[in-house]
Amino acid sequence: MACAIKLVAGLGNPGNQYAETRHNAGFRFLDAVARRYDCSLAHENRFHGDVGKAMIAGSPVWLIKPQTFMNLSGDGVATLARFYKIEPAEVLVAHDELDIPPGEVRLKQGGGHGGHNGLRDIHNKLGSSDYMRLRIGIGHPGNARQVSNYVLTKAVADEQSLTDAAIQAALDELEDIINGNFQKVMNRLHAGNGNS
């Protein structure tokens, strides 16, 4: 089967002070992908991020962790995609999602950015919203004014365990995602999780 996804981006903020925060769920997913597929990430200035190339489901797939801070995530993603002639529909972006509870993960194709600054910048720099998203649930603090502080703090242990389990569940579906079996993955990931 043809490779449907050629670039996987994990979103987060660089620096040790952010490493364990909720906003870095995308980074943690990408690190898990790199470990599973024995891929080393190295910083590449031209792509504004840590980049590697993995063989996943028999296909070469670029991995990137943008190092520009969340609000400028599109710099690295769009630059790498254009350089290697990767279409927006061939990009998967893993990110934290306030509207999904911890322990759940959803796959989504296209759509709006939902106020997520990393996605907003990718929309703008790619010039398209037609990319796949892996939405890793972190839950919502309940008050919009608390969101900024909430995403930049570390989750409590029980919540962190749920997020780790969700990342593992997504990782187990990655080969089908790479191969473009999106509906099959959605059916499995979303089962029992309510509506996508």
Q: How would you describe this structure to a colleague?
A:
This protein has seven helices and seven strands; from the N terminus they run βαβββαββαβαααα. The protein is of the alpha/beta class. It has a single domain, classed as Peptidyl-tRNA hydrolase (Rossmann fold, 3-Layer(aba) Sandwich), CATH 3.40.50. β3 and β4 (59-66) form a beta hairpin. The protein has helices at 25-36, 73-83, 117-126, 147-151, 157-172, 174-178, 182-190; strands at 7-10, 42-44, 49-56, 59-66, 91-97, 105-109, 132-137. It has a seven-stranded mixed sheet with strand order 2-3-4-1-5-7-6.
CATH level-3 fold name: Rossmann fold
Secondary-structure-based class equals: alpha/beta
Domain unit count: 1
Number of strands: 7
How far do the termini sit from each other? 26 Å
Task: Please outline the major beta sheet.
Answer: 7 strands, mixed
Radius of gyration: 15 Å
Mean pLDDT: 92
Fourth CATH level, the homologous superfamily: Peptidyl-tRNA hydrolase
Can you identify the CATH class?
Alpha Beta
Instruction: List the strand order in the largest sheet.
Output: 2-3-4-1-5-7-6
The arrangement of helices and strands along the chain is EHEEEHEEHEHHHH
